[in-house]
Amino acid sequence: MSRTNLITEVAVFVAFALVLEVFFTALSIFIPILQLPYGGRISLAMLPLFIVSHRHGIKWGIYAGVSYGLLNLMLDAKLYHWASLFTDYVFAFGVLGLSAFGRKLLGDTKAGLIVGIGIGSLLRLFSHFVSGVLLFGGYAGDYGFENVYWYSFVYNSYYVLPSMILCMIVGAALLNRIRTSKM
How far apart are CA 140 and CA 155, in angstroms? Predict the structure, then answer.
């Protein structure tokens, strides 16, 4: 694949991730349980980023994730603290590129894609968890939590883990369409 085609493909997948995010944002108006008050929603938006990482490796997966994170920030327009730019957008979506380790470990298989989605999602959860502890810990008491770590874990797990499971199911179903012969 030429470099121009690769850049174009990555840009299309990032754009598709944004379309999915907008769709799930609109859907959360009708199904409020999908959206949390201080950001985060259950969504399939990570799937195109996982596909980029699975098809083209860590470097392009990180590029796609960081690009998506910054564009998502522009769509959300919610920045409660300057450090949230990094923890909730740049790092949180950039680490999705590390999902390529699933393919490196298990090959171009359903297990490789599912493990990769698990790796990327758990790293994203960790980034949001750190953000929750450092930047949003003051809200723990508002929700009945005495422990800021537990609050951050519960709050962020509420949307990251269901999104991960959704991406695993849909990604496994689409794997034959997204397979490539080389990385």
Answer: 9
Domains in the chain, number: 1
DSSP calls for 47-71: HHHHHHHHHH-HHHHHHHHHHHHHH
Q: What CA–CA distance (Å, rounded) separates 110 from 179? A: 10
What does the alpha-carbon distance between residue 12 and residue 21 come to, in Å, rounded to a whole number? 14
pLDDT digits (tens, 9 = 90+) for 113-168: 999 999 999 999 999 999 999 998 888 888 889 999 999 999 999 999 999 999 99
182 phi and psi angles, rounded to 5 deg: -150, 165
Measured distance CA(172)–CA(125) in Å, rounded: 21
- Is the residue at 36 inside a domain? yes
Q: What is the pTM of this model?
A: 0.92
Residue 154: which domain range?
3-178
pLDDT digits (tens, 9 = 90+) for 128-138: 999 999 998 88
- Sequence letter at residue 40: G
Closest CA to 149 of 159, 134, 162: 134
At which residue do the structure tokens 């939590």 appear?
145
